[in-house]
Amino acid sequence: MIVIMIGLALQAGGVKGFSHIATLKVFEECKTKPDIISGSSAGAIVGALYALHNDSDVVYKAFSDAVRKFLKKQKSKPEPIMNFEMVIKESLYSLDEYYQFFKALFGKRKFSELKTKLLVVAFDIESWKSFIIDEGYVVDAVLASCTVPGVFEPTYIAGVRMLDGGVLSPVPTFELKQYGVDKIVASIFKESVPSYTTHMELMLTIDAIKESYIIQHELSVADFVFSYPVNVNWQDFNKYAEVYENALNVARRVKDEFENFIRR
């Protein structure tokens, strides 16, 4: 009997990462699961939670509970002076409280304790390359993958400064290729390029265009794509339930097509 290995790549994207839980829900409804998961940033959070629990409902509850607690804490704090502080400082926030968010999710669990093989992708500042983390403490790996440039200070893995995996590998499909999977499924967000009226908005638009080209390249090796139209900003975490419900409706519309794909 030939065993087909299925890999699942989860895109970076803040609150939009709740869409990935819908992808995992449809996997379960089709009586299957990925053999290996790769994720950047929010994709790493969802991927790690699923690799730990192997249950999409548990993933949703754990992630949403953590987000609600985080939002409650943030309400009592003054906002940084964005335009000024982004110029004079390397980052807007320290990693201390950010680390606590991930520690609450993963504790001291190691990759060796996970139920599904997991590849967490971060960006190595020293070599300017994507870096695969698949050993050690899960909390350290996911924190590194979620360290948004300019928002949080870089963290360290093996003595090397790391930033958000979405910098260079927003949809880490090629990382799955390296591990020899037979079929690659990608879970992504379908976004329009933002318009602009100011110089700052123009810079953001250019970044979005560059990212879209990277994603097109990454999807060239994907065999099936769950694509979710998500029109929220990555940091609008108060909209997590809306993002998930909308994504679940989309995912279930392609459920039959996906089931045929995995049975081929």
From TrEMBL:
The UniProt entry, under InterPro entries, shows: Acyl_Trfase/lysoPLipase, NTE, PNPLA_dom
Q: Which GO terms describe its biological process?
A: lipid catabolic process
Locate the PNPLA domain: which residues? 8-177
Active site feature? S41, D164
What is the top-level taxon of the source organism? Bacteria
Keywords of this protein's UniProt record, alphabetized?
Hydrolase, Lipid degradation, Lipid metabolism
**Annotated transmembrane regions:** none
Residue window of motif DGA/G: 164-166
Q: What is the residue range of the motif GXSXG?
A: 39-43
Q: Which PROSITE patterns match?
A: PNPLA (PS51635)
Supply one GO molecular-function term. hydrolase activity
| Pfam families reported for this sequence | Patatin
Name of the featured protein? Patatin-like phospholipase family protein
Q: Which organism is it from?
A: Fervidobacterium islandicum
